[in-house]
Amino acid sequence: MATESFPLADATSDPLVGGGDTPPVEPGPGERKRLTKWQLYSRRFVRNRPAVAGIVIFVLLVAFALVGPLFAKYDHVELDFLALSDPPNPDHWFGTNNAGNDLYAMVVVGLQRSLLIAVVVATGTTILSAVIGTAAAYFGGRIERFALFVIHFLMVAPTFLLLAMMSNDSGGDWKVIALVLILVSWFFQARTIWTLSLSLREREYVHAARYMGVPGMRIVLRHLIPNIGSLLVINFTLGVVGAVMAETGLSFLGFGVKLPDVSLGSLIGIGASSMSSAPWMFYFPAAALTLLTVSMALVADGLRDALDPTSAAGGRA
Amino acid sequence: MTTPVLSVRDLTVSFPSEAGRVDAVRGVSFDVAPGRTLGIVGESGSGKSVTSLAVMGLLDENARIGGSVTFDGEELLGKSDTQMSKIRGNGLAMIFQDPLTSLTPVFTVGDQIVEALTIHNSRMSRRAAWDRAVELLKLVGIPRPQERVRSFPHEFSGGMRQRVVIAIAMANNPKLIIADEPTTALDVTIQAQILDLIGTAQRETGAAVMMITHDMGVVANIADDVIVMYAGRAIEQAGVDTLFADTRMPYSIGLLGAIPRVDKAEKQPLVPIKGSPPLLVDLPDACPFAARCPIAVDACLAAEPQLLAVEGAVDHRAACIRAEEIRAGLIDGEPVYPIPEIPTSSLEQLPREDRKPTLEVENLTKTFPLTKGAFRKRKIGEVRAVKGVSFDIREGETMAIVGESGSGKTTTLLQIMDFAPQADGDIRIVGTSVTDIKGGRAERQLRRDVQIVFQDPVGSLDPRMTVFDVIAEPLRTVATPTAEIGPRVDELMDLVGLDPAHSDRFPAAFSGGQRQRIGIARALATNPRLVVLDEPVSALDVSVQAGVINLLDELKVRLGLSYLFVAHDLSVVRHIADRVAVMYLGGFVEHGDVDAVFDDPQHPYTRALLSAIPIPDPVKERTREHIVLTGDLPSPTDEISGCPFVTRCPLYQTLDPEQQIRCESEVPLLTGRPGVHVNACHYR
């Protein structure tokens, strides 16, 4: 085919194909168009090899966290006094710590904990930032001024410190940590979304809905938020990375998840102190953490390329 | 015959895309002789712009170009970008569509003209270049060129910027000027100035002009030869008179039939071309127009017709196997396109006074404050966007507001849609005054009666909602029972000529005209009494535009609707409206029945507006008197004590000094026959 002699073009930037005015072919323009939209995204995503590697790694990690406990020979709180600070061996695949905990079990549980916190936090921040950002832009006036005041205040406040204090008070409950993480990480995204929604607010379909008498909040939920969907997907994936990092950072410093509960961060924290005597204590959780964040970052990168928000110019993102 | 400046042979351009190879231009050949103007017309996606970009060597790197382009004896295809840079702007100049973006905002216009001059002529001294820049600005009619040469682009209006662009194009005495829709973004009065100016530029430099446009009127006005393009090919090629008088290819006939004419009073339905152009991917070897052609026969699908000379004509060629049978738009004595029937309304028998008003606007005023200062906003003046406008619309009537951009017509419309309370006037919709509206429930109740259709068919539909949801939205807003929504949406889609089975698709799957129909269906969902139409057809191609106009006409009659129609295109207004108001700088200057206003325009501004519209008839166009207005719209922030039109008025120039004083000091009121035809001029 002649197509192959060309570098495949970015379809959304091609005025003849991606442009909103492309006349559909009769018959059955609908099926054809709608299919290509999703095919297009997946094709563009798949073209980004690192992103595909990222998604594979991420799926494997999730699978590991879910089915890993089935293979574990020990519980993560169980102490094996016969194997203190053992290096990896057939009985303890990842070795043990100085109290005799099985590191494999701990990594699996820690990964579960870290993933759970990350997903909860990313979901929470995405929803919160989307609603606040778009509502502020749509309603304008006092609501907008108040929302922006809060956002700008949080931007200059030392939130990580607040986070550390609050989570320390809670005694390391992961639910409290997740909640606090949401509260201190939604505002940067909200501000980006606010800026983007300012232009969305002036779109004719938003005017049209207003002139139909559709209530304001419904316009925000039905017209504004779906149209920044691609940004939200990307924010979500990056949010997972950010939340994992923040949670690990906290736990590493000792303000996060506390024993007997473990997370990747607390494991790394403990492992770092015994780097020279028992390096496996550090390397296994650190590897899990690196794989998790790198894979999500790659996926986010691929998604951003595939759903480039500028393609919304043609009417669809 | 003189040797052509530009000779294009069998030009092909294709782009890669996710859907396959797009053949945007498929074998186009033409010559442009020095001093002649070639008009290339076609709808969006016909390949006309791609052709011009291919000639200029400005296509993306991923485009594949074949054939040959010879400019001044030199083959252009295959030249590197550096080699092309020496030719572009020197022998070959280009005028782009959007004057707002084709000048760099951070340099003065003088700098930009000087750059164009010195880059191709390094021996030219800076001083000489500046002098030439001033001379060029003077030539293109910029007042006070000595001072203005140091101004930045944002200090010029759109029309003035286009003049600067033309000055840059003329800078190096090019042999060929390519103008890609140079007037599409401009108002009609400015368009007339710019077309005049391109003619001047052509005479000054002796250049050939290649004019790309979608407007048959512009072609009739300026071109010597015409190429009609469709689906990447030239389908008819002839001298301008021949093409308009003896059109052979059905598509060209359709294009001409689909345009509303400002010079025709009788209400004949427009003739739309059904369907939409084919996607240029994997085209079969058949006439690409066959699916839309009313006289297609089986042989049309056998092979793609070649562009062949029409019998008995030297330079008239058409790509239609039935070209010989077609004479002046008729085939076997019948028109090629059957004229659609539009029902007439029983309301029309009723005299206007006896019909109920659906919208009454009294003394509508809107001012925007101008503020300055970063911290504390100080009010330093105000923009008077609308100044005391009054009118009413009766049942079954279409009222049009026409005016140039900045005249306040859209603001008027948005004020009505916002239900903005008036300090010194009132807006009444079907008898309900907007000042009486308290609370969301009452507002929603009133919104059922008034709905809006927007200009942009792409932007007015939420791309994330299916067509069903789009049309159902107003129904859900007024709490229609869910069981009734489905049948009502089907009914509406049927009403606007769409297949209800397609309601689960997204707007992106529809073409521009179909999307506008969806917008109309949405507006009709709540059975409104008044539909506000904000330039509903100006973003559509002419062949599609005709279908939408006919639909609006038909719906008005069938549903007894009233329309408030805002447009800048007077031909469309003449076709669709019953009454018309001409707006200038926030106020009406003429208002009355559409035939009275168009046949006997009184106000000098209306006269100028009407004469500025190019008529798609080269003979008429040449003999017609054009009133070309000088200058631009004054700023709406200025305090004007007299008639706002004084600065541009041709009549004012002919008055004696005492009469002139009256124009300058006294605001003219709308006088004449109230309700039939009034105008705001002291001396008309």
Automatic annotation (TrEMBL), chain A:
InterPro entries in the cross-refs: BP-dependent_transpt_permease, MetI-like, MetI-like_sf, OppC_N
Compartments, as annotated in UniProt: Cell inner membrane; Cell membrane
UniProt membrane topology term: Multi-pass membrane protein
Residue ranges the record marks as coiled coil: none
Region of interest called Disordered, as start-end residue ranges on this chain: 1-32
Residue ranges occupied by any ABC transmembrane type-1 domain in the UniProt entry: 115-304
Keyword Mitochondrion: no
Keywords annotated in UniProt: Cell inner membrane, Cell membrane, Membrane, Peptide transport, Protein transport, Transmembrane, Transmembrane helix, Transport
Main location: membrane
TM segment ranges: 51-72, 115-139, 146-164, 176-198, 219-246, 280-300
Keyword Glycosyltransferase: no
Source organism, top-level taxon: Bacteria
Family: Belongs to the binding-protein-dependent transport system permease family. OppBC subfamily.
Protein name per Swiss-Prot or TrEMBL: Oligopeptide transport system permease protein OppC
Organism: Isoptericola luteus
UniProtKB/TrEMBL annotation, chain B:
Annotated ABC transporter domain residues: 6-256, 359-610
One Pfam family of this chain: oligo_HPY
Molecular function as annotated in GO: ATP binding
Presence of the UniProt keyword ATP-binding in the record: yes
Keywords for the protein's UniProt record, in alphabetical order: ATP-binding, Nucleotide-binding, Transport
Family from the record: Belongs to the ABC transporter superfamily.
PANTHER family hit by this protein: D,D-DIPEPTIDE TRANSPORT ATP-BINDING PROTEIN DDPF-RELATED, TRANSPORT ATP-BINDING PROTEIN
Name of the protein described by the UniProt record: ABC transporter ATP-binding protein
Species whose genome carries this gene: Isoptericola luteus
